[in-house]
Amino acid sequence: MRERRASQGVRRAREFEAFVAGAAGRLLHTATLLTAEPRDANPRARRLLTQSLAHTYASWDRLHGEDPYDSARRQLAARFQRTAWHQYGSFGRRRTSPDHVLAALTPQERLILVLRLYEGVAEEQAAALLGLPAERLRAICARAMATLLHPPRGPAQALEVAPS
To answer: What is the mean pLDDT of the chain?
Structure first.
């Protein structure tokens, strides 16, 4: 009995290691986009990924044919949503890295854009994951895209008139 459990544990560990070897890079990039940190200095993204992978490993035996990448992505989104709520208060604006293009967005807008556009999650699936109606998700996504495509400009600069 012990030998069987030990071999199952070894098999489980090998399967998870293979999954991490194949998916960790993309998941780290997703986490980096969510946190709007620079690619080479992303401690919050790495912490978020580590926690998500730890949860995925803990529930590895309960996945039963489910795609482990989907499970890890759900965990990543849920953890980001929870931490963003506590850090930013009702998904308010807080710039994490002014150089990052996604820093102009609220955490909720970043989460929706990353899920929809980078990860390719269907609108209905993303809405269900975030607990939002599909119409609300669509509106937030459109607002975020408008912000990225037409960034707000700084204060209007006064025109200098040359004396005649």
So the answer is: 85
